[in-house]
Amino acid sequence: MSGRKPISDVSSDLTVEVGAASFSLHKFPLVSRSGKIRKLLLEAKDSKVSRISLPNVPGGSEAFELAAKFCYGVNVEITLSNVAMLRCAAHYLEMTEEFSDKNLELRTENYLKEVVFPNTANSITVLHRCENLIPVAEETNIVNRIISAIACNACKEQLSCGLSRLEHNFAVKPIKILEAESPPDWWGRALTVLNIDFFQRVLSAVKSKGFKQELISRILINYTQNSLQGLVVRDPQSIKENSLDLEQQKKQRIIVEAVVSLLPIQSRKSAVPMAFLSTLLKNAIMSLASPYCRADLERKIALQLDQAILEDILIPANSYGNSYHQLYDTDTIYKIFSIFLNVEKDDDDDDDVNHLRNENELSYDFDSPRSPKQSSILKVSKLLDNYLTEIALDSNLTPSKFIALAELLPDHARIVTDGLYRAADIFLKVHPNIKDSERYRLCKTIDCQKLSQEACSHAAQNERLPVQMAVQVLYFEQIRLRNAMNGDNNQFFFGAINGQFPHRSSSGAGSGAISPRDNYASVRRENRELKLEVARMRMRLTDLEKDHVSMKQELVRSNPANNILKSFTKTLSKLNSLFRKTNSKPLGAKANPETRILFPKLRRRSVS
């Protein structure tokens, strides 16, 4: 490359090489301002040296050219675009006050203090320029000072914004609010130009100053959406032969892990939306993020699982090069629900201790939103039932994983088991070749006492279910009708609710007994539902009695049919006596899992 023309008309006596560029200059103006060039000339063996090399000038040839002009006395305009570059070049060239008054280092420092540090937008712009000036920008402490300035300015703006709102609310005279007022996190959107390292450092500094958690969450969401756009790798196993995809996966992993480390401390009332946490978890799985990062996200999601919707937990599964893989990552979902149950159990233990300390807590209004535990676990149970219904359509899903999820929740988590029954029925339909033992284990998770009238009718005629379950459904329906006829509306159900449902030994998570407060609230809700159910059953019984009288009259008229009636009556009496022997407990109690199935494990033949 040809050399640059000398700044002065006097013939040059020194050529300076900066990268691929060379400059024809003069020794005296350079030596008078730059300590580094002075040392290079003094240390040279040849006193008449005419060429030196400066390969590591921050900012390259552009920065050196401006610095050289400054040495010649040319008025160099310092701007937001070049102040960081000139400050680093002045540091590298040692253009300090030791060699000349009002040197380049002092000029750039004054600009930083007067123009950059007081203004947040200017600070972000200059910080972005520092990304290509590492490590000199770190040596001069420009980066740390700009980050500290951004944090201080952001907190000042937050405080002034809060005070202005306070003055507006309590002002005697009406105050007109400017329409062009910017939101308090406008600068957060400007942070998207920074790389993940600088962004992480800025947000950490802002958090240390006490910035609001909800604003930090909004900044994180905005930055993540902009940074991950176009970086999502659908199948991590398909990128091994593509270096470009491998680099994208690495960048995606670094961003996700950094963002997760910046998330606010999680709680049930977190400012981080569930949809954002779900997106982070999906990206963490696809980018093969660290186990610690994934575990942290799983716990954060579990803590507010009652706020999730079905789309939040539908996480695609990695194929690992196998075309016969399941569609969704059920293992991760199992972990999340298990964490939720463990947290609930710990909270219940704490509440039991507090309850012993204060017996007046029994006057609590259980139906109010201030008693969230039961409503929370009911929401989670509905969410899990919807999830099971969705994944049941996957023909590649193994029965063991589906059953493990079905067994996960404790008995008191569901007031009605219609959702679980629907999911199990779909799974059995999609997986017709399932083993009888797995079919039996799956259906055992369904509490027949909590099925609605419509679900009981469907289950009694469902040929995909084991015969044992159909017998249970018919038996419990018989008891329900008998209690309704006798006017004993709630005896059967209250006995079941009050802790007499057996706990499944293979649930995979400690269910624990339902707490007294939530138990009482559940009883009150069940009582209201049962009153409506009994009213419907009485109407149904009236219709059945009419049909029974008419059928009996028809059977009496014909002698052969009369024999059939007697045989059918005798069979029913044997079944009733058998049930009475095995059910020595009150009607509200539920038999043990080992004894409540009264018939051998046989598959029914289709009626059709």
UniProtKB/TrEMBL annotation:
Pfam families: BTB, NPH3. Residues 520-554 form a coiled coil. It comes from the Eukaryota. Residues 185-480 form the NPH3 domain. Belongs to the NPH3 family. Gene3D superfamilies: Potassium Channel Kv1.1, Chain A. Pathway: Protein modification; protein ubiquitination. This is Phototropic-responsive NPH3 family protein. Residues 12-80 form the BTB domain. It comes from Papaver nudicaule. InterPro entries: BTB/POZ_dom, NPH3/RPT2-like, NPH3_dom, SKP1/BTB/POZ_sf. Keywords: Coiled coil, Phosphoprotein, Ubl conjugation pathway. SUPFAM superfamilies: POZ domain (SSF54695).
